[in-house]
Design brief:
Elements lengths: L24 H25 L6 E2 L4 E2 H4 L9 E5 L5 H8 L3 E6 L2 H14 L3 E5 L12 E7 L2 H4 L2 H11 E12 L1 H6 E2 L4 E2 L12 E3 L5 E3 L3 H10 L2 E8 L13 H7 L5 E8 L1 H8 L1
Parallel strand pairs: 3-4, 3-6, 4-5, 6-7
Antiparallel strand pairs: 1-2, 7-13, 8-9, 10-11, 12-13
Helix pairs in contact: 1-4
Amino acid sequence: MYSVGTPPPMARRRSRIPSPRTTGAHVRKNLRLWEKQSASYDRRCAPVLSGPRAMAWGLWRTPESELRAIGNPKDQDTLEVGCGAARWSIALAEKGARAVGLDLSPAQLAHARRLVRTSRAHVRLVRGDAERLPFDGSTFDLVFCDWGAMTFCDPYRTVPEASRVLRLGGRLVFATSSPIRIMAQERRYDRMGRRLRYDYFGMHEVTYRGGEVNFTLPYGEWIALFSAQGLVVESLTETRPPTRTKSRYLRPHETAWARRWPLELIWQVRKSEERHRRSSN
């Protein structure tokens, strides 16, 4: 079973970092890009995102069975933000989760609808903006994404929203870019170098030559943002590609670079009752 559409606006708890009233320019830019590249992306990457690789993380598809970032999804309410074709959510639903996949791109959701019908999994698909989640507070046990909306949207908007919709004890898990990658990346040609090109302090919004907008923060700012929203860091994984591993997303020299320096991160944070009380006061 699935449904597509944005539910009516829900009542929101006031946050220290206010949610935007309008969709940001970066959201509109990224939406245009995904509408344009959705079909080609799915054709190119479906082999590494499907089947047993559906429940795997990041650029080198680290199996969830090894990372154990999500754990047992049975009877859990899960939200995948920036779900794309919703392969992760389908896999979780097949293991007993009450899965919801959210994406802003109609083209991406069209792929998801097709796969949900084929799988017969019970996944609810919602068109919506991760910076303005269309759900009541304390709705989910897990909010997650694998290089999804937490990369393409502003964390100063997505993290408060994720915290808002999580129940106490619920977890936010996501894979995204390392700040070290952002400092060493030649943005015009999207290539990795061996020297630092950009400042570490103050990093936030990154615009690439084709117009794609990404976001990342210095480590300390991530932790401060989590703390302000009642979230406690449980784990930070800096992935490293195994020897002779290839990636559909990277050139060989970039994979070689990532064996020496961290290119991607996987954050695992939990909504703490004690920390939540402090952040709400």
